[in-house]
Amino acid sequence: MTKATNSTSKAGADTSSGSLRFYGVWLIGIVALIVLPMIFSSGGSLTSFSLIGIAIVFALSYNILLGQTGLLSFGHAVHYGLGGFAACHMMNAVVSHGWPIPLPFIPLFGGLGGLVFAVIIGWVMTKRAGTVFAMISLGIGELVASSSLILRSVFGGESGITTDRTALPKMFGWSFGPQLQVYYLIAFWLVLSAIAMYALTRTPLGRICNAVRDNPERVQFIGYDPHVVRYLAFCFAGFFAGVAGGLAAINFEIANSAYLGAIQSGFVLFSTFIGGTAYFFGPILGAILVTYLQLGLANLTSAWQLYFGIIFIGIVMFSPGGIAGLVMMHRPLVRAGTLWTVIPSYLVAVVPTLALACGVILSIETVARYSGGEPIDLFGIGFKPTSPVTWVAAVVLVIGGAFVARLSWRRIAEAWDRAATVARDRGYLA
Amino acid sequence: MLELVVISTLNGVLFGMLLFLLSSGLTVIFSMMGVLNFAHASFYMLGAFFGFQLTKWIGFWPALVLAPLLVGAIGMAVERYGLRNTHKHGHVAELLLTFGLAFAIEEIVSMIWGKSPLDYRVPALLDFPAFTIFSTNYPAYKIFMLAVSVIIFVALLIVLKRTRVGLIVQAALTHPHMVGHLGHNVGRVFMAVFGVGSALAGLAGVIAGPALVTQSDMAASLGPILFVVIVFGGLGSLPGAFIASLVIGLVQTFAVALDGSLASAFGPLDPSAGPSVLTDIWNVTIAQVAPIVPYVLLVIILIVRPMGLMGTRES
């Protein structure tokens, strides 16, 4: 893990071409954010981009805990939700008191909302790491989610707190009524938070966080208190989660108890882990993928959450580095020029793996649609969930696909090992 | 008032014993493998749904035996093919695997049985009032639940403390390598313990299903309380889990039964004060607070005694 981040830092600092590439990546990202809505200008895609932007900030903030400090939290949505509520209340207060605070500053107050709660509760929570922290975060998450339904005046009960983003003072003549303007607001905060969070990983604090993750005992020996380090990381994560919550409040013009709940916490855990926790860009990938799937799959199937669960289990079992880990695994091979030896075995594996995936999809959809009887449309082929032909096809695809896929995966592993050995001999793999 | 106290105590002990059926398995699995099984409450839910389905097909009594066995088999498969392969990636990966499983199981259950509560009835044989106390009929089924939990508790105690199997399990808890060197298959012991723990959770599900609600969100609502119980009792401590189960069970049952609020005790606040956090707190009834009581207890114990009630380890 640390080795990889080191190598990116080397790319950023040592050589001038490296630093050019480093800033190039960020510039490309920013340009892409500016250009995207000009290419895909429909209302639906603007909404999706906004949601993805919020999810990226949220997932990056979560990775301060999980990836950087090794704290597995099941209640990160608490800060997100409280940030959302803080932003909503602030917006309403600005309108009713006539304060000269324009909308683009509101996410800051969302962040403060998340930060304040992290400061208060964090000291007790971060006393211990590992499983205990995970359980406590779960308990605190439930505590806040349940309390939000009791404290109606603050959280608005079941219906939540609504607000009107256009009623705030204008900035640059923007009313932030159209989704496009909200998108640019989100994109602005996304870039700002991403740079801030990346910078955080470069600071001594970010480094000592990694040390606490890898070996808290050694950290104590060199004179740091892991508890304090965990607490600071927790506060930073809370702040940026609050920023994400504030952005969500602006986007939806509402904050309700669903923001704080276990589903939202699970969602950010899924995005971050599926994307990969070891690299800074991992959670970005994960947030894009998960949000996109969430928006796309929900229209296609009623069992879309199950697919998430399965993807997540698959990642945990077979690729704990997430998608980013899988991608970065190939870097030394690309550099050594041995990637082409692996590609044929990948191509061979595509067919049985796809067959297995189709079998799993077919089985799930058969069960999900059995009572309703709606037909299943799998890549243009229609199946009836009540017909035995479908069942046989599903079973054959799953069992046959799994059997052949395992063989092909083994071939990939062998080919990969050979390529990695060559790469190591050429000095590209430590 | 006395009626309320007696009935609530009975219900509280019952709920506590049910919690212990779950937390005992969870605790033993945790102290053995260092894995907190997030899917434990899902096994409880599977037990309830299997119980419901088997009751429909073959009747309640065979279901009472078969459903936990099925759940136990699933638990063993999870250990053998899931956790054992994930072990090399560390405890966080194992915890995440069970988290993903819990998520997937909930989705599968709601896919097959739907999201609304099932009509899982108390078996006719036990559908009569056991005794009448202060004009309240106490159902026989609840007495049956209590009896089953107590029998399992005693059986577990005897097996763990008095038999050779229990000896090996206890030894494997602390010295797995030594037990392995002595010729026992530690992997199989782990698998068996995981299976038995899951089966106990399944059994709790089968007997709790008719009395509580059998619904696809039952795991999500019970799971967090279960984790509160084992953190409260001290991670890895069986006596701690027992005490914590009873405490949480009683506290929550009493909280639900009591209908007082600060306002009812001290009179309502001046209504002209308008809606504020204070009036919210002032007017909320204890019954409304009941869902958050376990978590408040959790926070308090973490401040006062971070290792839990009977815990010895700091982490």
Provide structural commentary.
- The complex is a heterodimer of chains A (430) and B (315).
- The longest helix of chain A has 38 residues, at 388-425.
- In chain A, the strands form two sheets. Chain A has a two-stranded antiparallel ribbon with strand order 1-2.
- Chain A has 430 residues and is an all-alpha fold.
- Chain A has two domains: 32-319, ABC transporter involved in vitamin B12 uptake, BtuC; 331-425, no CATH class.
- The model of chain A is unreliable at 1-13 (pLDDT under 50).
- The two termini of chain A are 13 Å apart.
- Helix content of chain A is 76%, strand content 2%.
- Chain A is built from 18 helices and four strands.
- Chain B is an all-alpha fold and 315 residues long.
- Helices cover 73% and strands 3% of the residues of chain B.
- Chain B is built from 14 helices and two strands, in the order H-H-H-H-E-E-H-H-H-H-H-H-H-H-H-H.
- In chain B, strands 1-2 form a two-stranded antiparallel sheet.
- In chain B, helix 1 (2-33) runs antiparallel to helix 10 (238-257) and helix 5 (140-162) runs antiparallel to helix 8 (186-211).
- Classes of the chains: A mainly alpha (430), B mainly alpha (315).
- Chains A and B meet through helix 6, helix 7, helix 12, helix 14 and helix 17 of A and helix 3, helix 4, helix 9, helix 12 and helix 14 of B.
SSE ordering of chain A? HHHHHHHEHHHHEHHHHHHEEH
Number of helices of chain B: 14
* General form of chain A: globular
Helix content of chain B: over 70%
Terminal Cα span of chain A: 13 Å
**How many strands, which pairing sense, and closed or not: the largest β-sheet of chain B?**
2 strands, antiparallel
What does the radius of gyration of chain B come to? 21 Å
How much of the residues of chain B is beta strand, in percent?
Answer: under 5%
Q: Stretches of chain B where pLDDT falls below 50 for ≥5 residues? A: none
CATH-defined fold name of the largest domain in chain A: ABC transporter involved in vitamin B12 uptake, BtuC
Broad shape of chain B: globular
- C-alpha termini separation of chain B: 43 Å
Please tally the β strands of chain B and state the result.
2
Low-confidence stretches of chain A: 1-13
Task: Please report the first level of CATH classification, the CATH class of the largest domain in chain A.
Answer: Mainly Alpha
Mean pLDDT of chain A equals 84
Q: Report the mean per-residue pLDDT of chain B as an integer.
A: 82
| Secondary structure category of chain A | mainly alpha
Radius of gyration of chain A: 23 Å
Total of helices of chain A: 18
**The CATH architecture of the largest domain in chain A:** Orthogonal Bundle
